[in-house]
Amino acid sequence: MDLATTCTTCPYCGVGCGVVATVKDERLIAVAGDPSHPANQGRLCVKGSTLVETQGHESRMLVPSVDGVDVDWSTATREVADRFMKIIDQHGPDSVAFYLSGQLLTEDYYVANKLMKGFVGSGNVDTNSRLCMASAVAAHKRAFGEDIVACDYEDLDTADLIVLVGSNAAWTHPVAYQRIVNAVKNRGTEVVVIDPRSTSSCDIATLHLALKPGSDVALFNGLLTYLNQNDLCDHDFIEMATDNVENCFQAAQLSIIEVSAATHLPIDLVTRFYECFGGTRKTVTIFSQGVNQSVAGTDKCNAIINCHLATGRIGIKGAGPFSITGQPNAMGGREVGGMANQLAAHMDFTTQHIAAVQEFWGARNIATAPGAKAVDLFDKMALGEIKAVWIMATNPAVSLPDTAQVKKALTRCELVVVSDTVQRNDTLEFADIMLPARGWGEKDGTVTNSERCISRQRQVLPAPVSARADWQIITDVAHAMGFQKAFAFESAYEIFKEHAALSGHKNSGKRLFDISSLADISKTEYDELQPFTWPIKKKPFEDNRFSTASGRAFFVAVTPGVAAQATNAEYPLVLNTGRLRDQWHTMTRTGTSSKLFAHQSQPLIEVSLSDAEQYGVNADDLIQLSSRQGSLVSRVKVTETLQPGQLFMPIHWNEQFASTGSVGQLFSRAVDPISGQPELKHAAVKFEPVKTTCWARVFSQETLPRSSLMNFQYWVRKPVADGGWEFECAIEESDETNQGGVAESSVNSGIVNKNSVFKSIASLQAQLKKLFPGCHIQNYRDSVSQVHRCMGFHAGKLIYSLVSGPSLSELTSLSLPYQLIPEQSQWRGLTNLAGNRAAASPLVCTCFEVTKAEIESALEMGSETLSELGKALKCGTNCGSCVPEINQLIRQHTKTAEQNRYQEVAR
Ligand SMILES: Nc1nc2c(c(=O)[nH]1)N[C@H]1C(S)=C(S)[C@@H](COP(=O)(O)OP(=O)(O)OC[C@H]3O[C@@H](n4cnc5c(=O)[nH]c(N)nc54)[C@H](O)[C@@H]3O)O[C@H]1N2
Ligand SMILES: Nc1nc2c(c(=O)[nH]1)N[C@H]1C(S)=C(S)[C@@H](COP(=O)(O)OP(=O)(O)OC[C@H]3O[C@@H](n4cnc5c(=O)[nH]c(N)nc54)[C@H](O)[C@@H]3O)O[C@H]1N2
Ligand code: SF4
Ligand SMILES: [Mo]
């Protein structure tokens, strides 16, 4: 028995927590927070703590393939190199592109960027950071002359005011959020949330500004005006360290009344926020996707930064504008220069920088101009201008806007190479060449988190035999293209050293990103590297010097813009999108853990109470949601957290998990003109109810192919505890019924309809039969309820079960005929679901698997506070991510109890 513990980092969000991984007999058996890591000091959130459950090789891509045929690595490598070179020879370097990801390690990113920009000779390397951090990067460069995040996590511990703008940190950066919670408890830090939705992050807020979507520039311009007019600016700092303040003040001119009109916020709320900000020196403003993902994203970021510059709240402890990164290595990608408009190591496409990088790399054919940014890059593919793309560690067929256009682009593109860890995702459907990459725990390198802290990610597990590290795959292809010398890397360590050296090349203090003191570390030092933050031993801007040519920060004059995807009479509603607490992006990692579906198991479309009433829809109804780009069908969640006229949908589901596919299909390709970041928080939509004639639920030990569900207008799947999958499917009332069409009379159409329902269910049964040959099949039919059950047994064990009927509610109670399953044939996954009421109520606390129903019943029984509930049920006592929801249930319970009391008194 082999037991080993290794310190590494979590592969999920940009908080960048250190984890201690315990491996026994080559299997990951435990992960715990690393107490010595500065980012988390031992804490982990639910995604980090469920890492054990999301490992495993079942869904992994295991061998390389070319045009659908499994091949060995040397063939795959040669094919990638030859096909790329052929296209480059015929059409030039700009006819090819790489599309990378903030989930690559820095070393992977470095070689990919070097190969394309230095040796292929094109700037066409872009990354999913374009959808994520591009606006913040552009704003940093405009204001500071370099892409520098001004804050670190210690600032959260010492701030007196923390403003969260377009960030739901409680769910998206849970461990950083816990630091804020502690600051609130320990030193009375005030929290202001600026978000059109009421989110879990509002739990600790003294003020929530539910502003009109997209109106952030007006709010912060108004704040700048207020600071100026009330003499709350730091004139010494402005004088000493900045330029362009007067132009900026002039452009920002907005009275509180005008701000109120632009943001739809009450005057007193705006005033309270301005007073609070104006009066608190130690203010940190955290901003994230509610700011970045907008056609005004860069301006929004600069509007925030302006207020910090005006008050000199930057470069000091406990204050600053804090753009918080999303992906685990979004920052590492920025250091490397992996975006189309950057060259390398915080150097740009200027004559000087190009010469410096060319000299350092010994690059024969360096790119001399920026390449195409993500949305543009896929447009060029659709136009046939880009003919080959290599996609690594990202799933653009889900995550880009206007996914129909993305699919068109991938279809048109002559050569699509995809390196991924999984066998199937929406992008891989279009791959000509598939390359199996090593995943988290199987590779070595470094990542940089939101606070510029570089940590080692270490190999703790053996990789599947054929999977290779991304840097290795790229290096091999570079060799096959003839670039052996410049890519003579034997390990991630050697790449790191070169990357570190480049950061110091021709730098002499001009660029804050300089880790060249690590260029000569030994292999052992690299292996034992402890987390460290750059600029080394210095807080950015503490000396009031910035990276601009003048050394002074720049006030960028900005004015409010309008959303590109505007509402009108036909599309009157605004669709907002974002993350759920327990899912990660396109679900390739979290989609295998049943536990992570228990908080929310479907891509629900959130509708405000008043819109639900106005449009006559109820919770769980199916609706069709349409924009100018596309349309999808999904179920409704009625919520008090949204303002009328706004909808919300999670980003995670896709064609592998639901008929809806990705919410991205509803978004246009409108981008911020400066950063190129798409507007992913604001689409104009409409919806209408969908009538159904039949529902079905399937439990199956193996997943069903998408093709077997084609007859269902709606379906969604989720993993079942102890193995297997659960599907929920619906058949829409057909056009034939509604509009005459095939059938002439309503009686006839009823028959047609019944027939088509029967056919759909029969074809699903046939699929199940085919998928599990040799099963003994039992059928049960209830003629009164019209519920039909079909179960397949093998060797006395239940293998699948299909229940169908006209209404979903009947199925929910009847779908698991526990009593009908012979004792010896119990399938644990199924009986668990049948017997356990947990399945019926969403999980609130994922760590201890405590449901909403259990918390409500404990409140009924007399528990009153969070700590009492914690004692009774343990909920909320581990990672704390569920505390906002528990508090919400407590508030709800108190309110109901008070109402009951009031009614009793009234009687
Ligand atoms: N659980 C989980 N955590 C994650 C991820 C995940 O997939 N799952 N992904 C990681 C990644 S890559 C990222 S980038 C981060 C993102 O982290 P966040 O940015 O915190 O997450 P989002 O939910 O995308 O959006 C944040 C909020 O922006 C609000 N918003 C929408 N429009 C506006 C607006 O006009 N103005 C303002 N002020 N707010 C607006 C939305 O209502 C939403 O609540 O999360 C990271 N962490
Ligand atoms: N509507 C809307 N759309 C959005 C957003 C939004 O808020 N709203 N947010 C945007 C943002 S901020 C982001 S960051 C993107 C995220 O979107 P994506 O980057 O497309 O999503 P992921 O699911 O993280 O894709 C990562 C892929 O890499 C694979 N992978 C994992 N590890 C490795 C590895 O080590 N090597 C390789 N080669 N592959 C690996 C995974 O299996 C997966 O297929 O979505 C964007 N899209
Ligand atoms: S906060 Fe982010 S980095 Fe930390 S454990 Fe959770 S997902 Fe991982
Ligand atoms: Mo992101």
Based on the model shown, name its key terms.
907 residues; alpha/beta; 6-stranded mixed β-barrel; 34 strands; binds ligand MGD; binds molybdenum atom
Would you mind describing this structure in some detail?
It is a single chain. The protein is α/β, with parallel strands linked by helices and 907 residues long. It is built from 30 helices and 34 strands. It has a seven-stranded mixed beta sheet with strand order 5-4-16-15-14-6-7, sandwiched between helices. It has a six-stranded mixed barrel with strand order 21-25-22-24-23-26. A hairpin with a 4-residue loop joins strand 33 (843-845) and strand 34 (850-851). Helix 2 (73-91) crosses helix 20 and helix 17 packs across helix 19. It is globular. It starts with a strand and ends with a helix. Mean pLDDT is 92; it is low at 737-750 and 814-839. Bound molecules: ligand MGD (2 copies), iron/sulfur cluster (SF4) and molybdenum atom. The site of one ligand MGD has 31 residues, from helix 6, helix 13 and strand 21. The site of molybdenum atom (MO) has 3 residues, from loops.
